[in-house]
Amino acid sequence: MNPLHPISVGPFIELAGKRRSIRKYSGAPVEREKIELCLEAARLAPSACNSQPWKFVVVDEPGLKERLAHAAFSGVFAPTAFAGSPKGAFGNARV
Question: What are the extents of the domains in the chain?
Fold first, then answer.
């Protein structure tokens, strides 16, 4: 039990406390099984009235990923450019 929080800390809180943000990526492809596991976890996420208003698209073609990153962080979406700030995080897609 955490002395600052009288309620016992569960495994999820412990996991959340250990998380870290990655800002540099290796460029190595992610295994299909891991992608499918992430998609399944996202699909199971709760939504209002179980409406599940999301759609997921997996893009593994490098050229298309580059074009999507450029579109996501330019034009009217330029204020979000900080999200792709480290060069190489989205290939060469920069604003």
Answer: 24-92
